[in-house]
Write a structure and sequence with these properties.
- The complex is a heterotrimer.
- By secondary structure, chain A is α/β, with parallel strands linked by helices.
- In chain A, helix 2 (55-58) links the parallel strand 1 (47-52) and strand 2 (73-76).
- Chain A has one domain (12-315): Thiamin diphosphate (ThDP)-binding fold, Pyr/PP domains (Rossmann fold, 3-Layer(aba) Sandwich).
- Helix content of chain A is 33%, strand content 14%.
- Chain A has an 8-stranded mixed sheet, sandwiched between helices.
- In chain A, helix 3 packs parallel to helix 5.
- Chain B has helices at residues 4-7, 22-38, 125-136, 150-153, 157-169, 175-184, 192-201, 238-250, 254-260, 307-311, 334-338, 349-354, 364-372, and strands at 10-17, 43-47, 59-66, 86-91, 111-120, 144-148, 203-206, 272-274, 296-297, 317-318, 323-324, 344-345.
- Chain B is of the alpha/beta class.
- Chain B is built from 13 helices and 12 strands.
- Chain B is 31% helix and 15% strand.
- Chain B has 3 domains: 4-219, 3-Layer(aba) Sandwich (Pyruvate-ferredoxin Oxidoreductase, domain 3), CATH 3.40.920; 223-266, no CATH class; 288-364, Alpha-Beta Plaits (2-Layer Sandwich).
- By secondary structure, chain C is an alpha/beta fold.
- Chain C has 2 domains: 10-261, Thiamin diphosphate (ThDP)-binding fold, Pyr/PP domains (Rossmann fold, 3-Layer(aba) Sandwich), CATH 3.40.50; 269-404, Rossmann fold, CATH 3.40.50.
- Chain C has helices spanning 3-13, 21-31, 46-57, 71-84, 94-99, 101-109, 134-137, 152-167, 196-202, 232-261, 288-300, 318-324, 348-357, 379-395, and strands at residues 17-19, 36-39, 64-67, 88-92, 115-120, 145-148, 175-180, 189-191, 219-221, 269-272, 279-283, 305-310, 312-314, 330-335, 365-370, 402-404.
- In chain C, the strands form 3 sheets. In chain C, strands 3-2-4-5-7-6-13 form a 7-stranded mixed sheet, sandwiched between helices.
- The N and C termini of chain C lie far apart (63 Å).
- In chain C, 54% of the residues are buried.
- The chains are: A alpha/beta, B alpha/beta, C alpha/beta.
- At the A-C interface, strand 1, strand 2, helix 3 and helix 5 of A face helix 4, helix 6 and strand 9 of C.
């Protein structure tokens, strides 16, 4: 039980074995599906996976006699990602301590969507993060909506995004008026947390390493993974990776990690691209394309946020992020 | 044998690609339903429930059903109608004519003997007939093919399709019924010219096809009574499950797939199924029917950087040597975009399979950004 | 060994304690070598979890004990622990049970043999610590086995019995053991717990058929399905499991328990003075003791009344009920529940009994004694209710079948 996380330095070191195999009813270009594939490659065969309801539950089944999971896998309820992981880990520990099962490292990965993990499941997730079971990773695949039910807003939907619950209209031109909740920062605020990170499917080497560090941190951990969604964000499926890269290049998605109380940015864009290069590529922001005030606000908010990320990176500690002043005109 | 309560109805089945054609199909169905109502009939429309949620590229079917004049029964949601019920089959993306028979019914399954097939394509009706005979039919067909290039009439391909489908659906309702209801009910005065022109200009070809002449015909021969391979086991274990999974996955038609499904006595308790072996692709859900375009790797240009392998959300590219598995590729195009040496091109399915130059397709950007939001 | 020496051995080995129902159940959990416990506080079941926490902290036994953030998480924790192969324990009461209901239901439909306690308590609103059965009754359709204990002794025994029934591969359904709130959870009375040796002999270890664990076959559990392919089949297999529980496993296990202690343990009913009864009073749980008492009193004045205590609400013993009521002319149902707007505006257990008897040859007159709102039963009220039954039988019909026994005001 003394293994350390095996970190990689290049793409070709990503393991060949697939534990989330081909053959699922996901969209062409599905970001979360790619995430599943990479995360399970990183975790390896000695893993139990829990799948809360969402796209990564329904789209991977939806038939019968059709499982793509080459590791033990069990569904859990939309808001039950937290207790599912904890219950699984607790059972393993109890059985091992009592000699009912051989002692070894077994990973438990909860692969849950942002809707389930940050809204309805926040309470249970938070409970999970207060415990000390090792090899337990809560992986939030963030497509910034409740995608499976037809793309509705969640509290991780970004400002200005159109969803079926926050469409743009004459009276409400902005679409989603709430600001995106930062689940990774919320996780980092739990007093006994060992490892928290943000990641993106566009940065696979970084993702694999973060997953492995998380699983070997000795305590429950959380990784918030940006998974662009062609259906929900309205962009051509071939652009999934580029969009993830652009999210990082514009700074709207910061890649960082928080390891044993030390914060650092893991991918700092040298000169951040203008937010328009990200927003203009997605139909969910199309109502903002000619809204100069909204676009400027978005840029301002990213700029302000980066003052905080940079400050945190400098001092190696987390400080609470900005709150914007938004004037309705 | 058709279920009698469905026989008396008039059915339209609109085949589209998930997310890309959703708005088009619902508009077609809505407008034609209004026309049906104007003509004094019950008109119901819906996406086949089992096709939702729609996924980008994955095929779905939208039904518009017209009563004679009433619809008195609940229409089937999840099972494709057993027997011949479709009067008109409309196809918004011509690559849908080609389908993997291990997962879906053929394009003309469920179509009446005299059904009309309406296709949005730049190809001639005679070429479409060849494709249908090779990929999409396993029954006698004495109907007709109607083709048009819907984008020519309006960027919103629903308008052109409405016109062409009306040509197929007459005399259930007339083009005037359609135009009238578009103006009166939907207030879409600007769109009527496109609809009328498409109606007038769509190409038409009478068809006389024998089942035995269809390539898919032999696959449809009856499997007969399916025997359980459980032996003395009370409930399935991995071995029994995998035998069953393979049998179901390889069933050539939807009907046979249903017949191969297990009895309740065979199911292991506690909703237990078994997963595939490591890296062993899931035969229970192949996805070749999801492609409009397919990636083709030029081995001379490939530098074996593995970017395509890593970034494929479906794991459809083999690692060594780099090779596309077309049973699981959905044609998303990520590999071509991320390729380290521009070695991957994305020809249209019909070009890759049959050397045909299909020029009528909707760019996904057009579809999603113009019509999804 | 001669019978006398057997008795002597029992007297030495078993100690009698005075325990609440809560403490008794905790003892059962310890004896059963439970692996994972999920706790969340709500009156009146919390005492069980308090007792278990003390035992674990003091080293009496070991289990993973998780303090959860809600009942929903509580039931999810044990569901998942059970899938991996751990023996689990959980419980709740009243509105807490309802809060967790999604997790409660999924546990049964996914066939995890979790054993849970319901400390029966009135549902909110308003908040009320009184005793009602509605909290447990809300789950009567989804596959949980449900048994009602009558005192702390039986609560302990039923918990152990529940593990063996639930984990049997012919059943694999979760099992509630209900303890009437306050009456059983909080009142201490004499309890003789079995020994560890007896329990080890009676209760085999939990060995799921297909554990969710990479050490075993790779399992995909509860994949999303299309009902045209599979759907009714899964429900039917639950139906078959429930039937096997009723017809085979429950009688088998209760017999094994009875053999162990030299007792006759009828699985579904406890019958008192039913042999020649003209009138029967059907009840569950703690207040059946009141019924027994009143029945004995009435027998002394020559009334042929009997007491019929139902142990299992699910699976409901339909045939056994008909047999028990053979020759009975009228049955009164003591029911601590309400079922607003139900057929006859009756209560839950009453309607279950009526439905059970519909096709039976024995169709006594039936009366519903509703004890709603959590108010306790008084003996005079019970006696009056039984009198009304006797009069109805004499008359040959029931004018007013449903009675709200404890309510102040007009019962219209």
């Amino acid at each position: 039980m003394n293994d350390e996380a095996k970190l990689i330095s290049k793409l070709t070191e990503i393991p060949e074995e697939d534990y989330y195999v081909s053959g699922h009813r996901t969209c062409a270009g599905c970001g979360p599906a790619l995430g599943y594939r990479l995360v399970l490659k990183a975790a390896g065969p000695n893993t139990i996976v829990l799948g809360p309801t969402g796209c990564m539950y329904v789209a991977n089944g939806h038939q019968f006699l059709s499982s793509p999971y080459a590791v033990p896998w069990y569904h859990t309820q939309l808001g039950a990602g937290g207790p599912a992981g904890i219950g699984t880990a607790a059972a393993l520990r109890a059985l091992m301590f009592k000699g009912k099962r051989k002692r070894e490292d077994v990973n438990v990965v909860v692969y849950g969507g942002d809707g389930g993990m940050s809204d309805i499941g926040l309470s249970g997730l938070s409970m999970g993060l207060t415990y000390d079971y090792p090899h337990l990773l809560y992986l939030i695949y963030d497509n910034e909506s409740y995608a499976n039910t037809g793309v509705q807003a969640s509290s991780t939907t970004p400002f200005g995004a159109s969803t079926t619950f926050t469409p743009s209209g004459k009276i409400k031109p902005i679409g989603n008026e709430r600001l995106k909740k930062d689940m990774a920062l919320i996780a980092a605020a739990h007093p006994s947390i060992g490892y928290v990170a943000t990641a993106s499917v566009s940065h696979p080497v970084d993702l694999v390493n973060k997953v492995r560090k998380a699983l070997f941190s000795g305590r429950p951990s959380l990784v918030q993974l940006l998974t662009p969604c062609p259906k929900g964000w309205a962009f051509p499926p071939e652009e999934t990776i580029e969009l993830g890269q652009m999210a990082v290049k514009t700074g709207i998605w910061a890649l960082w990690e928080y390891e044993n109380g030390h914060f650092r940015i893991t991918s700092k864009p040298t000169a951040r691209k203008n937010i328009r290069e990200y927003v203009m590529k997605q139909g969910r922001f199309s109502h903002l394309w000619r809204n100069e005030a909204a676009l400027e606000y978005l840029q301002l908010s990213v700029d302000e946020q980066w003052r905080y990320w940079e400050e945190m990176d400098k001092i190696g500690k987390i400080i609470l992020p900005w709150t914007p002043s938004y004037n309705r005109e | 044998m058709v279920s009698p309560e469905l026989e008396e109805l008039t059915w339209l089945a609109v085949h589209g690609r998930g997310v890309i054609n959703t708005a088009h199909s619902s508009q077609i169905a809505l407008t034609l339903s209004n026309a049906g109502v104007a003509a004094g009939r019950d008109a119901f429309y819906y996406m086949r429930y089992d096709d939702s949620p729609e996924r980008v590229q994955l095929p779905f079917i939208y039904y518009a059903v017209f009563g004679n004049p009433r619809i008195r029964v609940i229409l089937p949601e999840e099972v494709e109608p057993v027997g011949s019920v479709f009067d008109t089959v409309a196809v918004l993306d011509s690559s849908l004519i080609v389908k993997s028979t291990s997962q879906r019914a053929l394009l003309l399954d469920g179509a009446k003997r005299n059904a009309a097939l309406v296709v949005n394509t730049s190809l001639k009706p005679s070429v479409i007939l060849k494709l249908v005979r090779k990929y999409g039919c396993a029954q006698d067909w004495e109907g007709r093919i109607i083709t048009l290039r819907a984008k020519k009439y309006n960027q919103n391909i629903a308008l052109g399709m409405i016109g062409a489908i009306t040509k197929a659906m007459e005399p259930l309702y007339s083009i005037d019924d359609v135009i009238e209801s578009m103006v009166e009910v939907e207030g879409k005065t600007d769109s009527v010219d496109a609809v009328r022109s498409a109606y007038e200009e769509a190409d038409s070809l009478k068809v006389s096809l024998k089942a035995e002449d269809c390539e898919q015909y032999n696959l449809k021969s009856s499997v007969g009574e399916v025997k359980s391979s459980m032996g003395t086991k009370r409930w399935w274990d991995r071995e029994a499950y995998m035998i069953l999974k393979e049998r179901v996955a390889n069933a050539p038609t939807y009907e046979q797939r249903i017949k191969s499904m297990p009895r309740w006595e065979e199911i292991a308790p506690a909703l237990i199924e078994f997963g595939p072996r490591v890296s062993e692709r899931n035969i229970g859900f192949k996805t070749s029917f999801a492609r409009t375009f397919r990636p083709v790797i030029d081995k001379n240009k490939c530098i074996d950087c593995k970017l395509c392998y890593v970034f494929c959300p479906d794991g459809a590219i083999d690692f060594d040597p780099i090779k596309v598995n077309y049973e699981y590729c959905k044609g998303c195009g990520i590999c071509a975009r991320m390729c380290g040496s521009k070695a991957i091109s994305m020809p249209h399915e019909l070009k890759a399979l049959e050397g045909l130059d299909e020029e009528e397709f909707l760019s996904i950007r057009e579809a999603l950004i113009e019509y999804a939001y | 060994m001669s019978k006398s020496s057997q008795v002597a051995v029992q007297k030495v080995v078993q100690k009698r304690r005075v325990w609440t129902g809560a403490r008794s159940v905790a003892e059962a959990v310890k004896l059963a070598d439970v692996d994972v416990i999920a706790a969340y506080p709500i009156r009146p079941y919390t005492g069980i979890m308090n007792a278990l926490a003390t035992m674990i902290a003091g080293g009496d036994f070991y289990a993973e004990y998780l303090v959860c953030d809600s009942e929903h998480s509580q039931f999810e924790v044990v569901k998942h622990a059970s899938a991996v192969g751990a023996r689990t324990f959980v419980g709740s009461s009243g509105t807490g049970l309802i809060y967790g209901s999604e997790a409660v239901i999924v546990t049964a439909l996914g066939q995890l043999p979790v054993v849970g306690i319901v400390g029966c308590r009135s549902l909110d609103d308003p908040g009320n610590f009184g005793m009602e059965w509605n909290d447990a009754f809300l789950f009567r359709d989804v596959g949980w086995l449900m048994a009602w204990s009558k005192d702390p002794q039986e609560a302990l025994e039923m918990t152990l019995i529940a593990y063996r029934i639930a984990e049997d591969s012919r059943v694999l359904l979760p099992h509630f053991v209900a303890l009437d709130g306050a009456a059983i959870t909080h009142i201490a009375s004499p309890v003789t717990p079995p020994t560890k040796e007896q329990v080890t002999k009676f209760l085999p270890p939990y060995k799921p058929l297909h554990p969710l664990d990479p050490a075993y076959e790779v399992v995909s559990k509860a994949m999303h399905i299309a009902p045209s392919l599979i759907g009714p089949e899964q429900r039917k297999s639950l139906d078959a499991a429930m039937k096997r529980a009723k017809n085979i496993v429950i009688p088998e296990v209760w017999k094994a328990w009875g053999n162990m202690f030299g007792r006759d343990c009828s699985p579904f009913f406890e019958e008192t003075q039913m042999e020649d009864a003209d009138y029967a009073i059907l009840s569950m749980g703690a207040y059946s003791r009141n019924v027994d008492y009143v029945v004995e009193k009435m027998r002394n004045s020559g009334i042929k009344v009997g007491s019929l205590r139902l142990k299992y609400l699910r699976p409901f013993p339909t045939e056994e009920l008909a047999r028990a009521l053979d020759g009975v002319k009228g049955v009164g149902v003591v029911d601590f529940s309400y079922s607003l707007g139900s057929p006859g505006n009756g209560s839950v257990l009453y309607n279950e009994v009526r439905a059970a008897l519909y096709e039976s040859k024995q169709r006594p007159l039936i009366m519903d004694y509703i004890f709603a709102g959590g108010r306790e039963m008084t003996l005079p009220e019970l006696e009056n209710s039984i009198q009304a039954l006797i009069e109805s039988v004499k008359k040959g019909s029931v004018d007013k079948p449903v009675r709200w026994v404890t309510v102040r005001g007009e019962d219209e």
